Amino acid sequence: MTTHFLKDLRMSGAANSLPAILRDAETKGLSHLEFLSALLTQEMDHREETLIARRTKQAQFPHSKSIESFDFTAIPTLNKTRILALMRGEYLDERRHVILMGNSGTGKTHLASALGLCAYQQGRKVKFYQTARWVEELLTAREEHRLLKLEKEWMRDDLVILDELGYIPFSKTGAELLFQFCSTRHELGSIIVTTNLDFDKWPEVFGDVRMTEALIDRLTHRADIHMMNGESYRFRQSIQAKHPKGND
Questions:
Q1: Within 13 Å, how many C-alpha atoms sit on residue 3's CB side?
Q2: E-state strands within 72-222
Q3: Could you read off the pLDDT of 79-98 as tens digits, one per residue?
């Protein structure tokens, strides 16, 4: 067992840190047992980081965003306490949904990604979809008779994130497929939706008032809804880049 561990260790990230760990051990006068403990800790940390990176890639996050890097001061109306409570993951156990609604550039995708990453760190299965692309995938699957298989995959995840709903209108068939999938998942697992549209504008995207009302009814039945209207992050960063402090 020791031989296999040492072989694995030589191929791992801890091997890169070995010189630093040795220097630290010499400086502090660590015993052999303490040195081995430090080495094992380094290896476990590296493997956890690698696992998170791999899961993040599998989840298809556009960017790996953490809650620590989110600027709550930019959206004063956002309830920070409620957002941080979501990070604990009880909403996933209760199969509740989360809707992040507000104008473009206010960090909705950032928060959705942070919630997804946090869920992954808790051992949950997460999948991130850009909504318009997901609808295209559904349409392709329908043509290729793969909808049932896709539906089974959709149901296996503990959390599904639908990003940027509302930016591109759907075709009639595309809207019906998205409605069908969300309706099927409604009682079985959590969904996070980010959208730039208020609910009364959703029919413009789905093209059918009654179907849209039914979808909203399902999504909001057990949902945390967070309004995120404010100044665009990207707009503010652009202004700061053009007019840095100290250069009037």
A1: 0
A2: 97-101, 126-130, 159-165, 190-195
A3: 999 999 999 999 999 999 99
